[in-house]
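Supplementary Note 2. Why include the ligand at all?

Several targets in our set were suspected to adopt different conformations when bound, so apo predictions alone were not considered sufficient. For every target with a known small-molecule partner we therefore ran a joint prediction. The input for iron/sulfur cluster is given below.
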Amino acid sequence: MRMHEEDRARAGLCAGCAHVKVMVSDKGSRFFQCQRGLTDPAFRKYPVLPVWQCHGYEEKGADGRSERS
Ligand code: SF4
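The joint prediction is reproduced in C-alpha cell form.
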C-alpha cells in the first residue's frame, strides 16, 4: 500500500484536505494537524481519525494548496 493510500485509510478526508499539516515525530509516527483547528474552535487541532464528514474540508490541489482560493 502506498503512503497516501495508507494516509487515506487512516485519516479519511484529512489525508487529502488543503487544511491539514502532517507532522512526523522522531519515531516516524504521522500526526494530522488541522490548521483550521488552530484558529477556529469549531475544529479540533488534532481530529479524531478517520474523518469521513467535515464541513471544513477542501480538496488539496495538485500543488498542495486549496482548489478554492
Ligand atoms: S478541515 Fe476537516 S478535513 Fe480538513 S484537516 Fe481539518 S478536520 Fe480534516
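The first helix runs from residue 3 to 11. The two ends are 31 Å apart (CA to CA). Comparable summaries for the other entries are listed in the accompanying table.
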